[in-house]
Amino acid sequence: MSNKPNIIFTALKLRCPNCGKGKLFVNPNAYNYKTMALMNDQCDHCGSSFSNREPGFYWGSMYVSYAISTSLIVFNLIWLFLIFGWNMWALIVPNVVMMIVMAPLNFRLSRAWWLGLNMRYFNKGQ
After folding, report:
1. Can you give the pTM of this predicted structure?
2. Cα 64 from Cα 106, distance rounded (Å)
């Protein structure tokens, strides 16, 4: 297990959690909404399967997405509070804009982390 790449870094680079080299998504542009969710069926480097999972497998990535969003919002609220104080609009508007802009990136990152966690810790026999 020590020769496997780090799950966090491979997810940030949107690479295969098994080898760290193959691309997870077909289109590298996360803001192309027609192809945003299209993933490769398998890693082009090591052959690990990304799509041969049970139905609804990627619904679990919603929990990861929630954790990422919550962390970003809390961090953003803290530093905005330190700069602007209790100005409600200065705290709410930047967070709403950030969540809208970050949604496609958060979607892909949460899928990558969910797949990496599953491949590393829950599917030992595969």
Report:
1. 0.84
2. 9
